[in-house]
Amino acid sequence: MKYKDAIKKSMEELAKLDKVRFLGYNINYGSRAYGTLSDIPKEKCIETPVAENLMIGLAIGISLEGYKPLVFFERHDFMLNSLDAIVNHLDKIEKMSYGQFKTPVIIRATIGSKKPLMPGVQHTQNYTEIFKKIVSFPVYEPLNSKQILECYNEVKKFENPVLIIEKRELYDCE
């Protein structure tokens, strides 16, 4: 199974859960998250403007209402625009509320591929190590389809945030 197929299968498994919603741009239109959400019912997807801080804020809000949102960042680089919401809110709500509130937000971020065309440095940067240092929730980097399937199988049970970083250059790899 290819890396991309494992992601697609994992998204379909998550979509079976009643309270899962998918958020981001290009998830209901355009590439539908590089094709990984192509078989997800559109009513489970919330298309957002290109406003990364808003995407995390929206995910936090609906998670507080009992949903489990998955936020898709088409480019890992663009997560920098959402640092305030991720670091100061998503990562801290449970602590700030003395455990009263949980935010089971799944963040899915893609590191852009440099092949077949180099999209530029602003679309291919990798901030994984920085995120591991600035948030207290788990940060995963699955490197093959087996790890993708295991990762999503595990995180669908989480009641806290998680960041899953995928590498676009691995999409066609077994």
Protein topology:
Elements: H1 3-15, E1 20-24, E2 45-47, H2 52-64, E3 68-73, H3 83-90, H4 93-96, E4 106-111, H5 128-134, E5 139-140, H6 145-155, E6 162-167
Strand order of the largest sheet: 2-1-3-4-6-5
Relative strand content: 15-25%
Radius of gyration: 15 Å
Poorly predicted regions are none
Number of helical elements: 6
User: What's the main sheet like?
Assistant: 6 strands, parallel
Mean pLDDT metric: 94
Tell me the series of helices and strands, N- to C-terminal.
HEEHEHHEHEHE
Structural class: alpha/beta
Work out the number of β strands.
6
Polypeptide structure, described:
The longest helix has 13 residues, at 3-15. It is globular, with a radius of gyration of 15 Å. The chain starts with a helix and ends in a 7-residue tail after the last strand. The chain contains 6 helices and 6 strands. The protein is of the alpha/beta class. 32% of the residues lie in helices and 16% in strands. β5, α6 (145-155) and β6 form a beta-alpha-beta unit. The protein has a 6-stranded parallel beta sheet with strand order 2-1-3-4-6-5, with helices on one face. It has helices at 3-15, 52-64, 83-90, 93-96, 128-134, 145-155, and strands at residues 20-24, 45-47, 68-73, 106-111, 139-140, 162-167.
What descriptors fit this protein?
6 strands, 174 residues, 16% strand, alpha/beta
In brief:
Helices cover 32% and strands 16% of the residues. It has helices at 3-15, 52-64, 83-90, 93-96, 128-134, 145-155, and strands at 20-24, 45-47, 68-73, 106-111, 139-140, 162-167.
